[in-house]
Write the structure tokens for this entry.
Amino acid sequence: MVKKVYLPLFFLLLTAVMQEFVVSRITFFNVSADVVTIFLAYIAVTTNKNPNTSFGFAAGMLTGILSGNMGLNMLARTVGSFIAGYFHTPKESHATAKQKSKRFYGAVIVATLCTNAILAATDNSLGFSTVYRVVVFGLLESLYNLILAVILDWLFLRQSLV
């Protein structure tokens, strides 16, 4: 019980704080990576939809409290983690480590696009059109998240996905 709930919640809190105070400050073309979405994609691949959606809601609440936009963050993270839940791979499946990694990468891309679409559709701090924000910033953030997910998979996650 402790390992299934409290340890991921601790890592979620750590990831949300790291996202708000460190990662969001590192930008390329006014877009930064989203380590919370990568964490939610990992949870989506390793657990089923119900815990994953709950973690998405909790992540939205944490990032919303830290950033000052709680309602929109809760909606975006919950929807993103729910959709990433379709990439779930059961432990007893016969999928290889490479196949599980590909599902993780797919979950990262889809969760990032969904989360970014919801957040970008309502926030216009830079004065760009909605379509531009959703498409260009969503694709850039998905690319950044994918690169970071590949690095994390190679360094740490491959052993836990098997």
The mean pLDDT is 85. The helical segments are 2-21, 35-46, 49-67, 70-84, 97-122, 130-161. The two ends are 21 Å apart (CA to CA).
